[in-house]
Amino acid sequence: MADEELEALRQRRLGEIRAEHGDPSADPSQQEAKQREAEIRNTILAQVLDQAARARLSNLALVKPDKAKAVENYLIQMARIGQLAGKVSEQGLIEILEKVSQQTEKRTTVKFNRRKVLDSDEEDDY
Length: 126
Description:
This protein has a domain at 33-102: Helicase, Ruva Protein, domain 3. The chain is 70% helix and 0% strand. It is an all-alpha fold.
């Protein structure tokens, strides 16, 4: 990937961080940078994914945008370092989705803390 694309990615991320923290330097030129960044991402994903995989990823983005973003970032990173040989099929995307799901899986545990009440019926029976 070209240095221009990498710089555009960095500028977009910097703009997002500034916008989250209420930085007044966010201006219309930053919106243009975001738009260029989105175009670059779409171009890279079009080169990396086949048509069925892109459709599945766009469906995922409708339901779980954060997971779709994580998968997109993973695919772009793999493309940058040259780990992708050819286009990723729908089955390959499913495997990547499973990997990302395992990495980001939240394990919740429920712990019941039963409190003993001083005035219980069990003590009255004796």
